[in-house]
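Q: My labmate handed me this sequence with no annotations at all. I'd like to see what the chain might look like in three dimensions before we decide whether it's worth expressing. Could you predict it?
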Amino acid sequence: MGGSSVSDGVVIDLSKRLDVRELGDRNELIQQQALERLSSLIEKRLNDFGTSIKPTRDDLDADGSNILFDRRHDTIVIHGSRGSGKTTFIRNAFRLFRLDKGFDKTIGSKVATLGVVDPTLIENKENIFVVILNKIKRAVERRREASGDWNTNKEDFNAWQEKLRSLAHGLSLLEGIGPEKALGDAWDDVQYVLRKGLEKASAGSDLESKFHDFIASSLTYLGKDAFLIALDDIDTDFRRGWPVLEVLRRYLTSPRIIVVLSGDIDLYTLLVRGKQWDQFSERQLHFDKTQEKGLREMVNHLQGQYMLKVLPPRNRIPLLPLDAIDGVHLVPPDGDKAVPLDAYMRALVRGGLGLRSKARRMTTSLLLRQPVRTVVQILSLCPARAMPPAGADAAAESADWRELVNGLPSIFLDSLLRHNTSLDELRQATGGRTLGFIAKFLTENDLWDNAHDLLPEHPEDDLNLVLVTLGAWLRGQYLNRPNLAIDYMLRVCFGRDLLTSYLQGLRIPKGDEDDDKAHKRKGLKVADFVKFAELEREGSSVEVARTLVAVINGDPGSGVRLGTIQTYKRGRSGDEIIKQIYGIAPVGELSFERLVPEADNPILPFHQTLRKEFAEATLDKPIELLGNWYNTIDSLQARITTETMSALVGLPACRVMKESGERPTFMSVHSIIAAVADLLRRGNSGQEDGVVRTLRDFATIRSYVVPPWISRDAGDSGLASVSEASDAETEVTAMRDDILVKHISDWTREIKAVAPPPPYVLARAWTRFYFTLAAIDEEVDRNDRFLGYLLHRQICAFFNALLVEELIYEKAEEINLRNPVTSDAVLSTNLRIADKAPFFTALFKCPLWSVYLNLDSAVGKQQCERAFSDSVAGLRVPYNIRQLSRQAETSKGRKARPTVVTFPNLYPLLNSVPVFGLARKPPRTFTQRSGGGLDLEF
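A: Here is what I predict for the chain of 938 residues:
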């Protein structure tokens, strides 16, 4: 192997074929410990021949045969599962014994090796005992032919032939040899029975002792102390396996024939157990039910005693998995330098699978405890250039790992099939079908609760191997499609968190879903949830997010719930809305001076921008409340005069159809996150047209039904049923916001160069985000519950969750692990080290976030600077006040023209939309003075 040689330990050359072959050197044999144990047992047998039992006169039967001849059950068992390398080990061990390579000459000089017999490869009618007998016969005949002088040891050869002939009569009684009846029709002939029949029966009963004599005579002629033979793979064919075990029990009992048996002890146990049950008649098992427990205990006892006798535990040699073998080195398929196994696995699991820390250790242990053949196949998929420098704890993640990702499903195909997944189905689930496949897998295998992160942390290795395979496959899918990483969080992680937390009380208990009573009982089945939310369906991420909004808000409750915010439609009384959003009822004529909010009120920027227009408009005409003092989503969307920004008002919005006919409007951060995925999916070519089409789709606010498992009787929501279509008369100029579109298009190209972290990191990030949203619902002050402010809080919660989990994954230091529930301080602290989280940094630069964030906050400023390095003009929102009706005229007799003012982004405008059910607590008490002013009382 040239430069690949290692003085101590084991070297596995991955460039060589994996099937059974002759190894070049002893250190190529992986199971060195098993080899030492095998040679030790053989040498002990050779040294024990002097203690054989010698018969006395009392030990002889009437005919002189030996009653107490030396009879031993000393079969050596090479124990290992399929693929553990049993055949390779036995064949190369026998070869090394024969050549005395690395041994002290005792084995090679004292044993005659009969080779390896695979009973599954011999003809059906052949008896394994006869096969062994024939091997001994051929060994003796080859020895005689090789001597060249047939007169030498002629007497020994003649004696040997006589021993062979003495076996002939008994052989006809073996299974598969001679007629079905031992003596055919001869039992009808009394004279024949007396003369020949009983003679043959006697020969059969003496077969074991005569076989011992034949072995001794054969070894005398060969000049050896013992025969060495291996029986391989008999555990894989139960029909062949049982006769072999019986031959071991009945005949291969001579201390002079050393039998090495390979196989899986668990399979041998099943084989023996089945045969013990076969001893009971079907009638007995069927009718004697009262004895079932006793029969089972008896079978357990018989099975255990049979195994202890025929395959004694003291002679069982396990073939160890690679993780239990020290000093293993590997030569890559395209390299010539031996690499330690631990470094090789670090490169493969970290670089190829993207796993680190505990996840890397779990996966490494899982893979290395698989059969050696399986592990070698996996290791051979690791490219040489991915190997880290000596001593480094990293791998070349930029290496081409596609061969590994594509090869794992084939290697673990059996495990996939046992979990309702075929190779063809997996290979077809690419692109938009990727997440639907994952959802289907979790549903069919009832794994939504504890396997959505695809981590191999379950008791069953079979399941863990499937999860490693799917985790690598999913990561490979979204390496060049970052939208799939976001879609995974939305469809799989959000779906799972809803099932295990928010919807847990509605679920039908596990195991009862297929019960007849369950179909009559109202409740949630996981499959129904997946179907309703269309988690398996290929399509828009925003549509999935909006459907989940309907799931969350199917029953009445708080206006702010898990990232969703219910807003007011136009009510019957504008005064009630004013009280809702400002905390006081209007007194007399409204004016900005008479209704000034607190300095820290989130709605203040809205009024600061409108102040000048308000002052001019109130000189001689009353101000319309809608659009000037507050907005609904529809009025806000109608008054924005650019196509893109108008669409982005509708993006987070959807309506939930109640059974009562109401359709309240909800805004949701989940729709904004989903929109980022849709922009990446449809704009991944970097073409602006794809971005424009996607943004245009967001403009329509659609309605979604509540799920059938939730009561639709929401009661009185306090919403007015008056349509607000009549208020949306403002003409919208259909113009393209080219600056914003260009920035988004450029960003979709740039982020493709950044690899998202593996699924389990994204799953942890979403769970952190989910419970931060729940905390926001409970802890945000009621006086701060404005739409823009709440969306800002929710977006910051998402930022921080993803940033923290990726920083943990990257082993960054000085991470603030708290969550930004009521302020941005925690996120601002973590943003200082955000460059250590490449995927978050790339996602953070998306210009879409800037549309909704508070640009006066530290987070908003930093995000905007990263998204718009040159100009923020693309964020500006032209807003039409429409303070007068279309027909109204000013005191000068001229028609009023629309007044358009510009806001920095949507944040201040969204704060003008009141949130349902969250009336502000008035911080002050207002009383009216006689002069029309307001007195403030504290």
